[in-house]
Amino acid sequence: MSSAVLSETTRNRITELTGRYPHPRSALLPSLYLVQEEKGFVSEESMAEVGDLLHLTAADVKSVASFYTMFFKKPVGRHLVEICTNLACKARNCDAVVAHVCKALNVELGGATADGRFTVEEVECLGQCEFAPMIEIDLEPLGPLNTPEKIDAALAKYT
Question: Which among 33, 38, 31, 36 has a CA at the least distance from the CA of 17?
């Protein structure tokens, strides 16, 4: 077993999860949620530890964690800003939203602000095309954000 990076409480909760399912692999997604709840993201070390607990290879765990976008592989800011760049938002100039958000928060797309307050990510679709262009901050949908003033007002709710 790799050295422990998870708390004893989280390790115990993961072990308990395996009893709820016919196969330990079925506990993988809820286990990754527990890791992210504790650490804020799912590191390589924590994936290896989950693998040990569930009798899976680290590669098995990483393949699942990498497939799902809700698992962060690096530390993220306190607020997650997700900017939709799918077709409807693209047609309504989401590129200007990306540029404005990044400039307003002084952060690169895919990165976190220096103070750790925000992480800004591009997402494929937020499923609310009628509000394009839109963003979600901490899962709160905001849009249409078709002017710099509307973008600034959306961000101000979290600063």
Answer: 31
